[in-house]
Each structure stands twice: as structure tokens, then as C-alpha cells.
Amino acid sequence: MATRRPPRPRRPSPGTRRTRRLRLVTTLAAAAVVVAGGVVWVTRSPDAPAVRERCSATVGPDSTSMSPEQAANAATVVGLSVRRGLPARAATIAIATVVQESGIRNLDHGDRDSLGLFQQRPSQGWGTPEQVQDPVFATNAFYDALVKVDGYRDLPVTDAAQRVQRSGFPLAYGDHEAEARLVASALTGNTPGGFTCHLRPVTTPQEAGDDERLTPTAQRVADAATTEVTTATPRVVAGTSGRALAFTLDGDDAERLAWAVGGWAVAGAERYQITEVSVQGSRWTRSSSGRGWVGTATGLPRGGVQIRLGG
Q: Hey, is 127 helix, strand or coil?
């Protein structure tokens, strides 16, 4: 199971307007790399427009920022709680854990044989090295252990996480509760439109294919979505701007689940080359992603989500 290891140096956590801020990697374009003050800056030619890629979870007056890589990993961690039907509290505990353990990065190293998002140790029974570096496997292993903790929903975050992780630095998890709550609320759909990313446009043309069959890119997104956040089967929808994957969530909780799928898609937009996400009366568009979610007529029913893809 989990580790009993000596304290490790504290890692940076996602900041909120009232707490701290995760280290942002600002991407400008491929010409030179400068490292200053622990922040990596990649610069492009003077004529190229500058886009600082970042993602954020916002609930009311509070917000926490992270890189697209961290956002995609957070989407997997929270999405699996949604797919499993777990409460948002479980997602909060899991996010606080990965912030402390790995900075929401899928690490290939760690203390002794610790690996992955949760820094799980193969020697302690968490799985093979390959398995614990698979975010889906690692997250499900964490939740499998968490749901066995009696009364975990009512425990302080640091206590619930420590019951699973058995860390040598047990009090650190609670330090990240505030930002973890923001991420969990936005990505579980409890805060509609609470998660957004500001990204560079996709320049690769969409793959050719007919309207009935998924292209390889679309298949990859469909497989990821149905593995990580929903059991709903997507269908292909053709439009003037290309094909999209359409999901229809049903039941009493359909609206929240639709926002969970939409938040997952925006958080993974860089990873999966997603260009547009629509949920009922709102749309996020990568080409104008600095605006975040914009209210607009989407023509989608209650519980409807569309994910449009690039190359």
C-alpha cells in the first residue's frame, strides 16, 4: 500500500487569489529558453503574438491557476470521481493529494521508488511502475483505497489523504484544501463554467473522414472521455466548421454532469487538440479562449455537450 517515508521538500501548490499561485509556464514561441527565478520562459520572434497558456478554476471571488499539463491531469483525477459517482469531497481530497505529492505532474521519479501523480510505490503494492505512472490506473487505485476509509467524507482533508497515502509528511495535504476545493467544484460541474483555459489556436487541419466514423483523433478523445469522466456514448455530428463529438447526459443530475464533461474537455484541450466545447447555453472557443465561457445559443438540449476537434 502507501508509503511511510521521511519528509520531502514542500512542492508549490495552485494559488488562489487569497492563497498562492502555481508556477506558470509561459509559452511565447520557439527561439530561446531562459530560466529565471525558477520560471521557464520560452520566447518567440518579435513579430509573433504572445499567448500565455494557462488554465484556471474559479468559484465566486476565488481562483487558482495552473499549466495546461496540470489541468489535463487534474481533469483525469476529478473526472474519474464523477464517472465513479463519488462525491465532490473525494475529488477535493484527491486533488489536494496530487498537488502535494507531484504538483499535479505525472512524475517518472520520486522518493525511493515513488512514481506518478500520487507518488505511489510499486514496492508497497500499488502496482507496477508502468501502472502507477498511468494517471487513470493511479487515480482509480487512490479512490479504491479512499472509499474504504470509514467516514472519509467527514474527515479533514489531511486526515483522509493520510489514511490512504501514509506519508512521512502527514500534515501537508490540508495546506492545499482551498485550491483543491476550487478545482473539484469546477471540474465536477458543481460550478458551471468554472474551469477555463487560455490556449494558442490549433493550426493543424482537421483529419479527413466521413460523417459516420470517428477519425483517429476523435476516437482518442472519445475513448478518453468514456474512460475518465462519463459512461455516455458519443456520436459524430457534422457542421459547417467540421465534425464534433456529441454527448447527451440524462437523469436528474444531467446538467451538472454535462458541465463536468465540458470542463474535462476544456482542461484537456491542449492534450487532445480540442478547439471548441459547448454546453447548453455556453461555449468555449480556443481561438478566443481568453474570453473563457461565453453565453450563446448552442441549440443543445439539457445535458447536451459538443466537443469540436482540430487536427
A: coil
Q: Which residues contact 72 (CB under 8 A, 6 or more apart)?
A: 267, 268, 270, 271
- Give the model confidence (pLDDT) of 89-133 as tens digits: 999 999 999 999 999 999 999 889 999 999 999 999 999 999 999
Kindly state the helix (H) or strand (E) to which residue 242 belongs, with its residue range. Answer: strand 242-248
Contacts of 221 (CB under 8 A, 6+ apart): 245, 265, 272, 274, 307, 309
Distance CA 26, CA 9 (A): 24
Helices (H), the chain: 68-83, 88-102, 129-132, 135-146, 157-165, 177-187, 216-228, 254-267, 269-272
Asked if residue 293 lies in contact with residue 283, where contact means CB atoms within 8 angstroms, the answer is yes
How far is Cα of residue 189 from the mean position of the Cα atoms in its chain?
A: 13
Using pLDDT thresholds of 50, 70 and 90, give the confidence band for residue 310. Answer: confident
Residue 265: closest CA among 304, 229, 227: 229
CA distance 250 to 97: 31
Residue 155 DSSP one-character state: S
Burial of 151 (0-12, 13-18, 19+ CB in 10 A): exposed
Q: Among 80, 68, 76, which residue's Cα sits nearest to residue 286? A: 68
Place of cell 518567440: 44
Short-list 130, 138, 183, 253, CA closest to 13: 183
